[in-house]
Amino acid sequence: MAAANPIVSLRAVGKVFDSGTAALDGLDLDVRAGEFVSLLGPSGCGKSTALRIVAGLSKPTNGVIEWPASRAGDAAAGRIGFVFQEPTLMPWASVADNVELPLSLAHADPAKARLAVGAVLDHVGLADFTAAYPRELSGGMKMRVSIARALVTEPRLLLMDEPFAALDEITRFKLNNDILSLWQTLRQTVIFVTHSVFESVFLSQRIVVMTPRPGRVFAEVAIDAPYPRDDRFRTSAEYAGYCRKVGEVLAAAMDARP
Fold first, then answer.
1. Which of 51, 57, 54 is nearest to 65 (CA)?
2. Which end of the chain has less Cβ packing within 10 Å, N or C?
3. pLDDT tens across 181-190, in order?
4. Is 141 helix (H, G, I), strand (E, B) or coil?
5. In sequence order, what are the residues at sequence separation of 6 or more whose Cβ sits closer than 8 angstroms to the Cβ of residue 258?
6. Where are the domains of the chain?
7. Closest Cα to residue 56, out of 194, 154, 195, 155?
8. Could you tell me if 176 and 9 are in contact, meaning their C-beta atoms sit under 8 angstroms apart?
9. 227 Ramachandran zone, left/alpha/beta (phi>0; psi -120 to 50)
10. Is the pTM higher than 0.90?
């Protein structure tokens, strides 16, 4: 069960780009420590924008981001990991060097950094590929490297922006299984952006359904199915029922008006 206290809160967050496009309007969201939360909505509803604002990669036009558990009152450096839609690996660097990049930029002790890299590559199932280069990897393996790079700094909060959307269904299912296993082992807080009802139900404790642009929270759906979840859950009546419920909420959100 997730802790009661939020690790991050968004209060009336809005975002208007220089072009005049309003991506978010009045977004309110609490994410609790240790929780797995998915942001679900149609393309262009502001899910990725919200994630970038939480990461500090973009500033809200209005509203505030609160970090109640941080003494500094904001996101402590190195405590957020971000997995983007594309792996964005350096093609000239080995798997180990790609994963070590955040530690190198932070001037971490090289010996300790290599130990951390080895441990996280073991967690994502790439212990035998430390010397490989991105061109030698499948799409799923590249994404594992990207996940390992996000985890190597031991973040409190892991942000994932549709990381599996471009992968084939079999690989996507496998990585869904793996990310849940990692979450249960490492216990980071995860905010996962997706436009897939099926993926959100399989992964999440809570699904935040957003309206079309400008995005705001339309409804939240708790997924009370126990963990670990596996292929048996995917074929269960319980899973089908949750998918139907979330699909109906999403359809209602699509018809919502500001």
1. 54
2. N
3. 999 998 889 9
4. helix
5. 25, 211, 214, 216
6. 1-79+205-258
7. 155
8. no
9. beta
10. yes
